[in-house]
Amino acid sequence: MLCLLASAIWAGEMAVIPAGTRVPFFTGAGGDKTFKREAVPVKTFRMDRFPATRDEFAQFVKAHPQWRKSKVKSLYADAHYLDDWKDDIHFGNETGDGQIPVTHVSWFAARAYCQSRSKELPTTDQWEYVAYDGGRGSSRNLDWYGQPNPAHLPKVTSASTNGFGVSGLYGLIWEWTLDFNSAIPTDDDGNDQFCGNGSLGAADSSDYASFLRYAFRSSLKANFTTENLGFRCVQEIQP
Amino acid sequence: MPRGNRFSVRRLVRMAGCVLLLRSFYFVVASQASQSSNDQDTADQIKGEENLTLTSAPKVPPPISRNHATKVIVHLEVTEVEGRLADGVEYTFWTYGGTVPGKFIRVREGDLVEFHLDNHPHNKMPHNIDLHAVIGPGGGAASSLTAPGHSSVFSFKAIHPGLYVYHCGTAPVVMHVANGMYGLILVEPKAGFPKVDHEYYVMQGEFYTKGKNGDVGEQVFSMEKAIDEKPEYIVFNGSVGSMLGNTALEAKAGETVRLFVGNGGPNLTSSFHVIGEVFDRAWLGGNTTAIESNLQTATVAPGGSVIVEFKVNVPGTFVMVDHALARAFNRGALAQLKVSGEEDKSIYSGKIRDEVYLPEGAGIKTAEAPGRGAPPARSREERMERGARVYKTNCAACHQTSGQGIPGAFPPLAKSDFLNADKIRVIETVLQGRQGKLVVNGQEFDGVMPEWNLGDEEIANLLTFVYNSWGNSGQEVSPEEVKTHRVKKGGSPE
Q1: What is the pLDDT of residues A166-188, one digit of tens each?
Q2: Which among B137, B147, B223 has the least Cβ separation from residue A226?
Q3: What predicted TM-score, i.e. pTM, was given to this entire model?
Q4: How far apart (Å, rounded) are the C-alpha atoms in residues B13 and A155?
Q5: Which of B147, B234, B268, B285 has a beta carbon 3.0–4.6 Å from B333's, enabling a disulfide?
Q6: H-type alpha helices, B56-178
Q7: Any chain A CB within 8 A of the CB of B124?
Q8: What ipTM was reported for this prediction?
């Protein structure tokens, strides 16, 4: 009991992700179609256990008026920014709404939120490293991806927790990463990969869930917002 | 190209000037060429602008009446929707326009198409589009990856006439296509198509569900089955039974039908066939410049198409299948075309009659009596006694125990004029069977008696018994007589 309590206090709102290695899903950036199965080191870091909630984001926009939906510059957020909010600082009336993940946020807004808490958005490698869950395999489950968005998003606490103590990486929402737009290789003309050649340069052509995530990220620009795209933050651990 | 034509026309005119003798002839040719070249120019110029109306299968937009190219604006909206895959089976389809297959796009050769791919804000996935009619990277896919709540716009010139597949090209492309992201775009040739009474849109596709075919409830995509190319469902127009019963395609006898057929795949080649029809004309691969005639089954590649045309001559239900038949019988690749109207017996009679089939092979005649031949009867009494047993075993069920027969069904053998008039005819009847109209004792019969696989001795016993019972003529039939007629009928035709 003491031990459990100690562990919870120690972990806090963030989980400590131990250092390790990861084979990137794509290595073929810049038109290099040959996949190099080389593990890259991942340093230890902390990651939010849950995606940012509407409650938390409401506090953020109260403190930083430039991120309210009436104030935000279109350069930093498209017309769907906080689309489902009643007004600048209120998201809705239903009980528990504050505990559902905030979505309809742009990369700029998400990053500003993390930085306001002395954090940062995770890199794609960091995010996928945690999602890969030390090889436990749930990151490959396709079921969530094949279902339409629910009319009402569930609370962040409803999602499953993986081996690192992190919840909701899949089965809840999409999440921004710091380097989302360099996550998928482009060909010599700068085109995104599509169709059959989308599998060129990938670590595993039968990991459809990874393809879906990488394709989603590559469809984005930093001011885009969508109904099911939220984020969580990470923090460096100084040695 | 028009510029090049004009140049060559000028050269032709110059040549004509040199060849004085043929001068007038060349002038005729040159002026005609020049005229058609000018038409070409006019036809290729983009005139005006038009918002294109698209249709959901099985409907096809009407033929294009324009005689010039125009700028057409196409809005295709991607939606992710739950729907019926089969009775009791739900699936989340990713669609171009809310249905599988996606909406039918009909443009004219030479048109400039301004394409808007609209990804609905409620969608979860990014999508793009690869139209096989597009000349350019990814067939448009390179320019159209679109996040939910956004639109991508690109334009292309519809250069090549034909019927083309379009589909999503976003990784993992197999999943996007297997979830229903395909449709057809027709680039109608400048000259148009011959007029027909009906045009329909039929597209095949496979679904890879985790549950087996028929497992009810909500089904999800199985990556393993998709990679193995082992679908649970293979269907026309997005679901099992999409065109059956009151949703069947319709036509009237004497009308012409044109089907625009596509195959979205993602993996299997279709063998498209309409049971009970022959395609009068077929444009294989959707290539409008090469016509096949009298085609029975059209191969439609995944990512390919065919246009077929046929006249429905007679009424009835005509079933469309993938003729790789387990797909039709077990996986759903089956649809109906119902044709109403007057029958034409000269083309198809319908069933004229049912007949009992007496196979030749079962009655192979041999010179020898079958091996089970009874030992020779030593007396007329013995022959009668044995004959009674043969009768009871083989004949009494129909002709009845006292040979009275059954009126209207089985002729009587008692006091039978047919029997007593001709012994040989009776021997042959037992040996070879008999079928058709027959008058016995003034009553008409129209039935069948099979041939009897009995030995010469047995038949001699039987017939001697019959001729000496129930008031018949009292003749005797010998095994030799039976053998004679067996050989005569079996060995050499009369």
Answers
A1: 999 888 999 999 999 875 555 54
A2: B147
A3: 0.76
A4: 81
A5: B234
A6: 173-178
A7: yes
A8: 0.85
